């Protein structure tokens, strides 16, 4: 296609979350736990969930169709469609092939890409695949679409309040309003049994809670320090967190994100010279000899650096948690829900020219930190203005959801559990409560073939 393309990134986004939620305060009462266990301890307010009417295919179809509709996308202009998910309902047939039903109607079938899976990291891997394609010699000049979606459900017990569901669809191409930095991605990949799903007859994962937190923070340490090294090669004046306008994280639950921002500050402290520590980190010198690997559960370190970083958290990270707090952990779309939340929290003139770092994590484990720059064009009708206006419409749907009593929520979850992988099967969940334009499962036949309809 000639010369190297410039400013590859996100041209448009669409995020979808379920139309039903359970209030975490009510769930605390229903579960008989101490007040604040979910709302303060986890930092969660509401949790979105799906009845048996929605599955991973329907979630992704809904987000993709909305992206196509709202942006008047010519389907023949799409050359790659990537999907990231860990919600597996077929060991062979990909979610991407279901999404192709939207393209095949228009005769658009020359589209590369397929599903990518590794816990919550699959969406980021799919995004990198799309960016790499556009920046490669294989690119044919067309745009790419990335869809990330999941349904996060847990059995009755302490993990259930950390569930959620959603999907995000992103249009990727050159000359984008959200541009990905080149050459500074920092990854950390290793083996761990912190969270995994070996039982294919169940939606529920096996989780080692303490190990999962340790793995997350260890991956963050490794990615952040390598990211800073790579950034300094490009910009010798780069000063870590202080040089970033936003710091976004994959969000299993909001409290962990706040602790993660404190962890980043702890890393900056350890990397600083003695003189820099005295100037930038007053009153924290007692931690100078601490080792990262020994401090994942050190309450003194955690408390000291959460206090130190509180203002930085309020400015650089907390605005990204609006969707996470009100929907829950969406797994692969979680980080991108954070990006959406941050973008709609500011006025357009506050966003132009800003730089964000994003930390993506998937158990097992795979992780990457990378950065995005926001373009300087905020003129009327610009790509950035259109993107932000569209995302504001998305986020406004939070207030149009239906609140469900905890007992009814529990009953709906039980129906999902009892009928997981049943065939033939006709879902019993309400179609009336779904948002207009939502795809839903109409039936599964005796050959386990799934049929979908769309609520008008």
UniProtKB/TrEMBL annotation:
Return the InterPro entries for the record. Answer: HMG_CoA_synt_C_dom, HMG_CoA_synth_N, HMG_CoA_synthase_euk, Thiolase-like
Q: Which residues form the active site?
A: 86, 120, 250
Q: Is Transferase there in the keyword field?
A: yes
Q: Which reaction does it catalyse?
A: acetoacetyl-CoA + acetyl-CoA + H2O = (3S)-3-hydroxy-3-methylglutaryl-CoA + CoA + H(+)
Q: Which residues form the Hydroxymethylglutaryl-coenzyme A synthase N-terminal domain?
A: 6-177
What's a Pfam family in this record? HMG_CoA_synt_C
Its keywords, alphabetically, are: Lipid biosynthesis, Lipid metabolism, Steroid biosynthesis, Steroid metabolism, Sterol biosynthesis, Sterol metabolism, Transferase
Biological pathway: Metabolic intermediate biosynthesis; (R)-mevalonate biosynthesis; (R)-mevalonate from acetyl-CoA: step 2/3
Enumerate the residues binding CoA: 212, 255, 259
Q: Which residues form the Hydroxymethylglutaryl-coenzyme A synthase C-terminal domain?
A: 178-455
> SUPFAM superfamilies annotated for this entry?
Thiolase-like
Provide one Gene Ontology biological process annotation.
Answer: farnesyl diphosphate biosynthetic process, mevalonate pathway
Record-linked CDD domains: init_cond_enzymes
GO MF annotation, one: hydroxymethylglutaryl-CoA synthase activity
- Its EC number is 2.3.3.10
What does the protein in this record do? Catalyzes the condensation of acetyl-CoA with acetoacetyl-CoA to form HMG-CoA. This enzyme condenses acetyl-CoA with acetoacetyl-CoA to form HMG-CoA, which is the substrate for HMG-CoA reductase.
Q: Which family does it belong to?
A: Belongs to the thiolase-like superfamily. HMG-CoA synthase family.
- Protein name (database record): Hydroxymethylglutaryl-CoA synthase
Highest lineage ranks of the organism? Answer: Eukaryota, Metazoa, Ecdysozoa, Arthropoda, Hexapoda
């Amino acid at each position: 296609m000639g010369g190297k393309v410039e400013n590859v990134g996100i041209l448009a986004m669409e995020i979808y979350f379920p139309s039903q939620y359970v209030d975490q305060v009510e769930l605390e009462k229903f579960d008989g736990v101490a007040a604040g266990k979910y709302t303060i301890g986890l930092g969660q307010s509401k949790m979105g969930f799906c009845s048996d009417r929605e599955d991973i295919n329907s979630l992704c179809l809904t987000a993709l169709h909305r992206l196509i509709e709202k942006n008047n996308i010519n389907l023949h202009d799409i050359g790659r469609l990537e999907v990231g998910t860990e919600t597996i309902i077929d060991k062979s047939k990909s979610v991407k092939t279901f999404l192709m039903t939207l393209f095949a109607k228009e005769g658009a079938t020359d589209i590369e890409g397929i599903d990518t899976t590794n816990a919550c990291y699959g969406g980021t891997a799919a995004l990198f695949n799309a960016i790499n394609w556009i920046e490669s010699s294989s690119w044919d000049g067309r745009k790419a679409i990335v869809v990330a979606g999941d349904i996060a459900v847990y059995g009755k017990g302490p993990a259930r309040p950390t569930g959620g569901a959603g999907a995000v669809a992103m249009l990727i191409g050159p000359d984008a309003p959200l541009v990905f930095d080149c050459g500074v991605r920092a990854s950390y990949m290793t083996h761990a049994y912190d969270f995994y799903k070996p039982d294919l007859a169940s939606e529920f994962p096996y989780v080692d809670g303490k190990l999962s937190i340790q793995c997350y923070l260890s991956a963050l340490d490794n990615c952040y320090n390598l990211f800073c090294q790579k950034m300094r090669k490009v910009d010798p004046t780069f000063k870590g967190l202080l040089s970033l306008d936003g710091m976004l994280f994959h969000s299993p639950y909001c409290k962990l994100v706040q602790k993660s921002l404190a962890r980043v500050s702890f890393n900056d402290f350890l990397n600083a010279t003695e003189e820099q520590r005295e100037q930038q980190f007053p009153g924290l010198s007692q931690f100078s000899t601490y080792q990262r690997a020994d401090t994942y559960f050190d309450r003194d370190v955690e408390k000291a650096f959460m206090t130190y970083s509180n203002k930085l958290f309020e400015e650089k990270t907390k605005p990204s948690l609006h969707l996470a707090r009100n929907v829950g952990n969406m797994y692969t779309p979680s980080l991108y829900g954070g990006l959406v939340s941050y973008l709609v929290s500011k006025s357009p003139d506050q966003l132009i020219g800003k730089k964000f770092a994003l930390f993506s994590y998937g158990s097992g484990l795979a992780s990457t930190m990378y950065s995005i720059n926001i373009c300087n064009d905020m003129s009327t009708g610009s790509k950035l203005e259109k993107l932000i206006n569209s995302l504001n419409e998305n986020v406004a749907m939070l207030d149009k959801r239906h609140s469900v009593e905890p007992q009814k929520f529990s009953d709906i979850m039980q129906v999902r559990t009892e009928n997981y992988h049943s065939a033939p099967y006709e879902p019993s969940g309400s179609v009336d409560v779904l948002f207009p334009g939502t795809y839903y499962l109409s039936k599964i036949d005796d050959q386990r073939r799934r049929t979908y309809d769309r609520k008008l």
